[in-house]
């Protein structure tokens, strides 16, 4: 135990990958601890932030542990990453990533299952699996490929090159780039905004949008209409809609204006 730190700031769970001496490399017991923390976070918070202790967000799979595994143990380990990371992507809460330093291999796979990613300017992103003689196994062929596109992911994997935070932003891998040392605060600020939304809306946003992306346009529009109607007829929606109509709720602000 002790691979993951947990701090509650009001409604926001701030979760730290905490194995800095091994650059937050993810072992089997690390994954199990993350699984337990997700359960705790969902019972206590309205949004969550994930960051890395030490000089890097995450160096990916623990290669020292992996080198000793049989092929079947490797498959089982990969499926366990899928289950636990899936609990973040398709759980109860929106997750925000604060990325710095290396976000590589399984670290990028972990970042890819979060809903919003904030990177510090010095963060760098890579998928060195090809150089290590392995393949992605923590969800990158689905999630990371959908963020950056198959051609870019193929390039990263074949060449082993890394990209900067600003390239990652233009590749749709991160949504925000901030100066050094500011990613965690920015992610907490964004998580605070999400935590003030209706829970049902947040749930629909994180569950419906990626699923609708996988549907045909016509199927997506049909499903959207039911989610729209279901959320709009909730008691919380009625309260929030009336608050706006009675001029008790804020207007939409212009970019740059104080909210
Ligand atoms: C590790 C790992 C690791 C560091 N597993 N122990 N991931 C990679 O191929 C990335 C491998 N790591 C690196 O390229 C570098 O460590 C970093 C660029 C991330 C950081 O460099 P640096 O100079 O800050 O640290 P370091 O000196 O390289 O590493 C410090 C220690 O962490 C060192 O151990 P020590 O006992 O010699 O102090 C490293 O061996 C250890 N370390 N990264 C184990 N990954 C589900 S499939 C996912 C597939 C993948 O993720 S493949 C990509 C794996």
Question: Describe it for me?
Answer:
The structure is a single chain. This protein folds into two domains: 4-195, 2-enoyl-CoA Hydratase, Chain A, domain 1 (Alpha-Beta Complex), CATH 3.90.226.10; 199-245, Lyase 2-enoyl-coa Hydratase, Chain  A, domain 2 (Orthogonal Bundle). Helices cover 49% and strands 15% of the residues. The chain has helices at residues 28-44, 63-66, 71-89, 106-112, 129-132, 143-148, 150-159, 165-170, 183-195, 199-213, 217-232, 235-245; strands spanning 4-9, 12-17, 47-52, 95-99, 102-104, 116-120, 124-126, 163-164, 176-178. The strands form two sheets. It has a six-stranded mixed beta sheet with strand order 1-2-3-4-6-9, with helices on both faces. The chain has a three-stranded mixed beta sheet with strand order 5-7-8. The radius of gyration is 19 Å and the shape is globular. The model has no long low-confidence stretch (mean pLDDT 97). 3-methylmercaptopropionate-CoA (MMPA-CoA) (1HE) binds next to helix 2, helix 3, strand 5 and helix 5.
* CATH architecture label of the largest domain: Alpha-Beta Complex
- Unreliable runs, pLDDT <50, ≥5 residues? none
The total count of strands amounts to 9
Radius of gyration (CA) equals: 19 Å
SS element count, helices:
12
Helix content: 40-55%
Q: How many distinct folded domains?
A: 2
H/E order of the elements? EEHEHHEEHEEHHHEHEHHHH
Overall structural class, as computed from helix and strand content, comes to alpha/beta
Oligomer: single chain
CATH class of the largest domain: Alpha Beta
What number is the mean pLDDT? 97
**First and last CA, distance:** 41 Å
The amount of beta strand, in percent, is 15-25%
CATH topology of the largest domain: 2-enoyl-CoA Hydratase, Chain A, domain 1
Strand order of the largest sheet: 1-2-3-4-6-9
Sum up the overall morphology in one term: globular
CATH superfamily of the largest domain: 2-enoyl-CoA Hydratase, Chain A, domain 1
């Amino acid at each position: 135990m002790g691979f993951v730190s947990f701090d509650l700031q009001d409604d926001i769970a701030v979760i730290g990958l905490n194995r800095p001496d091994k650059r937050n490399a993810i072992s089997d017991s690390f994954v199990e601890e993350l699984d337990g923390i997700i359960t705790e976070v969902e019972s206590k918070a309205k949004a969550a932030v994930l960051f890395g202790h030490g000089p890097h967000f995450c160096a990916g799979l623990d290669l020292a542990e992996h080198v000793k595994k049989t092929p079947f143990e490797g498959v089982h380990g990969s499926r366990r990453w899928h289950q636990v990371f899936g609990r973040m992507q398709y759980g109860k809460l929106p997750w925000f990533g604060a990325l710095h330093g290396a976000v590589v291999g399984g670290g990028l796979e972990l970042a890819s299952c979060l809903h919003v990613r904030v990177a510090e300017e010095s963060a760098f992103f890579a998928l060195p699996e090809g150089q290590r003689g392995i393949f992605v196994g923590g969800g990158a062929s689905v999630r990371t490929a959908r963020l950056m596109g198959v051609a870019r992911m193929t390039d990263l994997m074949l060449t082993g090159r890394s990209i900067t935070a600003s390239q990652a932003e233009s590749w749709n891998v991160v949504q925000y780039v901030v100066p050094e040392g500011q990613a965690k605060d920015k992610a907490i600020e964004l998580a605070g905004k999400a935590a003030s939304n209706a829970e049902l809306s947040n749930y629909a946003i994180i569950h419906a949008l990626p699923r609708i992306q996988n549907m045909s346009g016509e199927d997506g529009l049909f499903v959207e209409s039911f989610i729209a109607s279901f959320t709009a007829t909730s008691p919380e929606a009625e309260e929030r809609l009336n608050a706006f109509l009675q001029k008790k709720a804020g207007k939409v602000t212009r970019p740059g204006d104080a909210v």
